[in-house]
Amino acid sequence: MERYKIIKEVGNGSFGVVWRALNKQNGEVVAIKKMKRKYYSWEECINLREVKSLRKMNHPNIVKLKEVVRENDILYFVFEYMECSLYQLMKDRLKSFLESKIKNWCFQVFQGLAYMHQRGYFHRDLKPENFLVSKDVIKIADFGLAREIVSQPPYTDYVSTRWYRAPEVLLQASTYGPPVDMWAMGAIMAELFTLRPLFPGSSEADEIYKICSVIGSPTKSSWAEGLELASTINYLFPELGGVNLSSLIPSASKDAVNLIALLCSWDPCKRPTAAEALQHPFFQSCYYIPPSLRPKSTTIARTPPSAGVSGKRVVEQKCAKKYPGSLLNSKSVDNITSSAKAHVSLSTVTGVQRRLEMSRPDGVNEKTNKNTARQPKYQPPMKNNPRGMYMGKGKGNGVGDAAEKLGNMTIGPGRGGGPRNPALLPPAPPPMKAGVAANRSSDLFTGRSQVYSSKVAG
């Protein structure tokens, strides 16, 4: 760690402290996360979920883990430096964000999620604190709760921060998958428009009540499996009809409200995948190609393939089991194989130090077989993909090479946490009212440290 000069502390939480630092060798500004607990073996370090998941991913909208260092039984993560979190941009803001900016951020996040899910991981803790922003670029961070889609259940039920926790997790489902990330994105999208949480529950029972008061209570036709889950833990849903989302999010366009409603569907099988969300009409303008950049040839080029599995295939796989605990079959899992080598070196400096460098020539630094093929560069799904969920909406035929070049281009212009309630038995609380205060906290890569008073949507 002598190669880095600490500039200042930028975060402090229960798991570690984060510093802004300078690489003395190349002058690069980085973020260093120092873990508070001791690590007595290198194997223990490289088997951490955050390390295992980030080593397999290289995407412009996923924060880069540059290096892992263990020195004197202390573990350090060296990340690329980002200016602030999305939460920090939201917490003191008085004026709503422009829809174009929200669209730009969400378009980038869904690209990162599509890439992540394709490679067999889902995040499980999406919230504004875990999105890092620099200028117009947004990246997904904090993979401490990330899980492999093919991992064996049962999964822990205390995952994401309560306000963004999917209903199947609140009802203690033993298996779940990427749809929990999509639910969280629906709640976050709504919050970006209103600067107020959509489901600010003060407990798990209250969280379900808040969800019912917004989207209406589930029925046998809308989510029969959810009613079975509730029955298993002796929970009875309140009978509420819900409200029109447009009245709660008046500044949002019809397409934005429609996408939020789809993402916040009770049934995980009815939520769009990240690849399908990118094909929603809300993002139609993100695929516009200026005439000056359109291909001059009259031949229509082949449209780039969708990220990961096509929409139809994903829905079929997603609904094949009671809960989408393992969405990818063995063929899809083959895509998870890495294509570069990790450089692990043992230094002779004072105190035992081991370092894992993430040089990532094409994305991943991990020991693989020599016969492993190099993974193709990730291509975001195009709006007019013939197999997409929203086929037939919007106009246009194929998109040429310029579209591929612009695929990743951005358009210009106490957070529901707390100890777990073991049984969802308390009587339903009174309906939510505007002006209810709730603790919120923020962090950069680490635990939560800030508090502000939030208003309830509506």
TrEMBL record:
Family: Belongs to the protein kinase superfamily. CMGC Ser/Thr protein kinase family. MAP kinase subfamily.
A Pfam family of this chain: Pkinase
Entries under PANTHER family matching the protein: MITOGEN-ACTIVATED PROTEIN KINASE (PTHR24055)
Keyword Nucleus: no
Any one GO molecular function term: protein serine/threonine kinase activity
SUPFAM superfamilies: Protein kinase-like (PK-like) (SSF56112)
Keyword vocabulary terms for this entry: ATP-binding, Kinase, Nucleotide-binding, Phosphoprotein, Serine/threonine-protein kinase, Transferase
Catalytic activity: L-threonyl-[protein] + ATP = O-phospho-L-threonyl-[protein] + ADP + H(+); L-seryl-[protein] + ATP = O-phospho-L-seryl-[protein] + ADP + H(+)
Stretches the record annotates as Disordered: 361-386, 411-458
Upper lineage: Eukaryota, Viridiplantae, Streptophyta, Embryophyta, Tracheophyta
Keyword Phosphoprotein: yes
Gene3D superfamilies, A to Z: Phosphorylase Kinase, domain 1 (3.30.200.20), Transferase(Phosphotransferase) domain 1 (1.10.510.10)
SMART domains in alphabetical order: S_TKc
Name of the protein this chain belongs to: cyclin-dependent kinase
Residue ranges constituting the Protein kinase domain according to the UniProt record: 4-283
First-tier enzyme category under EC: transferase
Biased composition (Polar residues): 439-458
Biological process, per Gene Ontology: intracellular signal transduction
Amino acids binding ATP: 34
EC number: 2.7.11.22
GO cellular component, one term: nucleus
